[in-house]
Amino acid sequence: MDGWRVLEEAGELTRRGEAFALATVVWRQGPSSGQQGSRAIITASGELRGWIGGACAEPVVLREARQVIAEGVPRLLLLGTPEQFGAAVPEGITVVPISCQSEGALEVYIEPVLPEPHLVVVGRSPMARTLTELATALGWRTALIDSPDFSASDADERSMVVVATQGHGDEEAVEQAVAARPAYLGLVGSHRRGAAVLGYLADRGVPADQLDRVRVPAGLDLGRTSHREIAVAVLAELVQLRASGALATGPDRSAAAAAPAEAVDPVCGMTVTADRSSYPLEHQGVTYYFCRAGCRREFEQDPAAYLKKETRC
Q: Which CATH code fits 118-244?
């Protein structure tokens, strides 16, 4: 996948609401397989699509990209041996020493691309349409679905769902929404109407802990207002809750941060992924991993030399 194809793939992931990081080589010192302008996508699960560099650079970029997704903060990496840069590294750049036979170096910019908030508005009232238009103006991924067409599959645990059916199938819509376990679920209506809807669902066996998560009435309390102002009040509550961190509407950052197991190459000292891609070798009941086949061969020829070195360290 070349650079332009990577950008097309990035657009597709964005449209699907998936979190990923975009890594771009902004500087290189040859010899290096990574070229200036080389790009790659790293998904939250650690899959790399594109080309950013060889066996030395790739595992480092994968590890750092997962952290970038988890933190939501871009990072500029300088990859090479410590002797190449010394004290001449500008502030704000993360230096990651790597031991690579090519003796090349790379500067890689990794930026997070996080999905926009996903709002599902259920209903066909003027208020529902106004809320949809306002959220769309904020750049949110927004869907307006009539109550008979709405199901739990239209939302997930990171969605925000507002039921604004105004008495047209409130119970059915809330029951479907509860099953999706969204990050936010609000019902537009009075306290009295809300109590009736939730009481009906409780009688139908919907668990109390799920019903307790339904906000009734949805939105900030602005008193007696018009339908347009109700839409503003609901949107204001959603913005307030997201800004405070009360809603988990972003990517699953715990999964993004859960990097695979790592090991240190006993020959060159590089940190590598402890899996089949890192040339595993079992020696005296212990499995060692290597950045390249050459390091594995050197270890095989004289394991004791490297194990003594590891013990001294």
A: 3.40.50.720
**Domain residue ranges in the chain:** 3-115, 118-244, 262-312
- Assess contact for 187 and 170: CB atoms under 8 A: yes
The answer to whether the Cα torsion of 145, 151, 157, 161 is positive or negative is positive
Q: What share of the chain is helix, strand, coil (3-state, %, to 5)?
A: 40, 25, 40
Instruction: List, in sequence order, every beta strand (DSSP E) within 54-174.
Output: 75-80, 93-97, 105-113, 118-122, 141-145, 159-163
Strand 214-215 and strand 184-187: the pairing is: parallel
Alpha carbon distances (Å) from 152 to 9, 162, 192, 229, 304: 28, 13, 25, 28, 60
Instruction: Give the pLDDT of the chain (313 residues) as one tens digit per residue.
Output: 667 889 899 999 988 888 999 999 998 877 666 688 889 999 988 889 998 877 678 888 888 998 899 888 999 998 876 566 666 677 778 777 766 555 678 889 999 998 889 999 999 989 999 999 999 999 999 999 999 999 999 999 989 999 999 888 999 999 999 999 999 999 999 999 999 999 999 999 999 999 999 999 999 987 777 889 999 999 999 999 988 888 876 655 444 445 567 888 888 777 777 888 788 999 999 999 987 788 889 899 998 888 876 655 4
Which residues does 99 contact at the CB level (< 8 Å), separation at least 6?
Answer: 56, 81, 265, 268, 269, 270, 291
